[in-house]
Write a structure and sequence with these properties.
The chain contains six helices and no strands. With 146 residues, the protein is mainly alpha-helical.
Length: 146
Amino acid sequence: MVDELVLLLHALLMRHRALSIENSQLMEQLRLLVCERATLLRQVRPPSCPVPFPETFDGESSRLPEFIVQTASYMLVNENRFCNDAMKVAFLISLLTGEAEEWVVPYIEMDSPILGDYRAFLDEMKQCFGWDDDEEDDDEDEEDDY
């Protein structure tokens, strides 16, 4: 009986040792996988946006060109987020405050088709807040004369 217990104890110790070795190997593999995952995440994580988030627009005419440039630049570098005109217009609307916000409310209330047309929305903003495209066209015409 004692011999059987000794053999059983010896077999258990051998099994324990084998499992301990296997456990150590698995822990090393896990450590390597965690390191590899961290390396891969650093490679696929999108870089921080090189263009700062646009400032809000309150309807001040002199700020409209700046607002349009800021928002267009931001949407360009984040084009995967702004895949259609409706998303672009929604983004612009989210940045409107004060008089500009009040201006857009009727368009939203009547679910205007302009909300799905980025160019048309910009044209309406320019018309309402005093951006005169004719001045730009005149400047270009003068440049063409040279």
